[in-house]
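Customer ticket, subject: "Can you confirm the structure for methylmalonate-semialdehyde dehydrogenase (CoA acylating)?"

Message body: Hello, I'm evaluating your service for our small team and ran a test protein. I'd like someone to confirm that this is what the system normally returns, since I don't have a reference to compare against.
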Amino acid sequence: MSVVSHLINGELVESKRTLDVTNPSTGKVIRQVADADTADVELAISAAQAAFPAWRDTPPAKRAQVMYRFKQLLEEHADRLVQLVSEEHGKTPEDAMGELKRGIENVEYACGVPELLKGEYSHNVGPGIDAWSNFQPLGVVAGITPFNFPAMVPLWMYPMAIACGNTFILKPSEKDPSASMAVAELLQEAGLPKGVMNVIHGGREAVETLLDAKAVKAISFVGSTPVAEAIYSRGSAAGKRVQALGGAKNHAVVLPDADLENAANTLMGAAYGSCGERCMAISVAVCVGDETANRLVETMLPKIAQLKVGPGTDKGLDMGPLVTAEHRNKVLGFIEEGVNAGATLVADGRSLKVAGHEEGYFVGGCLFDNVTAEMRIYQEEIFGPVLCIVRVGSLDDAMQLINDHEYGNGTCLFTRDGEAARRFTDAIEVGMVGVNVPLPVPVAYHSFGGWKRSLFGDLHAYGPDSVRFYTRRKAVSQRWPSVSEATTAEFSFPANQS
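Agent reply: Thanks for trying us out. I re-ran your input and got the following:
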């Protein structure tokens, strides 16, 4: 059985331990992945440290040339990368291709790094004194990425980190490591020097070693809120810059004037696409008025019944399986708890079986009505194909409901009322907002991130914030006094005279 190795200093490195990688459509182990111990991680850190000085001094334009070649290779090898994502994660090929394309957008943005790293300059800020600032890389930085976007989320991080002059260590999810590894190997093929990009696989020991290592200057993380908070606390205590993106409970507010057919169609994709395993998935539809809720349920039920579910490697499907048996059981537990709490399960996908794939981790689309804010299925992130309908009396009630929630990742409003949309976008306490756009994921030249307990740290992911996260500003003041200029000691704080 093949083993996905570490990539350290440009070479494939085996590990003493391995973990199983399962195809979620069949429930069968298809390969193994190296499981890093502390020594493996320290080897990667040493390689990144050794490569940093030369890469830091490489002109940004030459770094950008590597990114241009990397982008071309990603496009040339897209079909193979999509197959790896579908095989190990379970998402459909169409969904995996969309993920990869959004990741490539971040590589395109990194190609502009010579412009993005331009500092500021002021001539003659004082008598014969010039001042400027520039952006300098941090050193060795690391990224810890989740299972749900094995190609895209790593591309949120290391293209810009590396383009800014840092060296990088990636710790992808051990559940679906092959796509992350294949993408990293393409970056090596693009001409990146050895040691600038390293990939280590594994679990908690690998993560904790990165968090505690003094040589690692920054950590970027995407995952659940409890883990994000723990990583932020531990990494910050170790003196690192930390950006930790956590969980979500994304609400879609449906007003009575909304185009219900359009809202239902877009909610189908936002709630059930990728089997709900997206941090931007809509998991709550907040309907203003009982009539709105009744109409939405009536419109969505036949669409849910027609969902095409099957093995992730097949084309033309709407959903594949959940990523692991453990995660499927967790989602099933949430559904059972919702029923016991008194919510109305109007669409029940628990009994779904896919012919020929009876051991796969499948759950069909589920729809709860009459969900209330006290229920656990409302409060917590389910991360599965489960949509909850909450009924409220007004837009103000809907906004209060959202603003009271501990998460503030994404939200959207379905309406034809411009005044309502403006009020919603201004006053809602959520980091990413859509109007008739259910998945308001920013493009690569804007930044991605939520509010409240969906993000720990000051800076969002990718876009302009990524340049700020992966660099530090240095301000320089310079004076060259003439030979004949007489100077005397000054003991007051220097200031320009009016």
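A couple of notes from the result: The radius of gyration is 25 Å. The CA atoms of residues 126 and 493 lie 13 Å apart. Feel free to reply with more questions.
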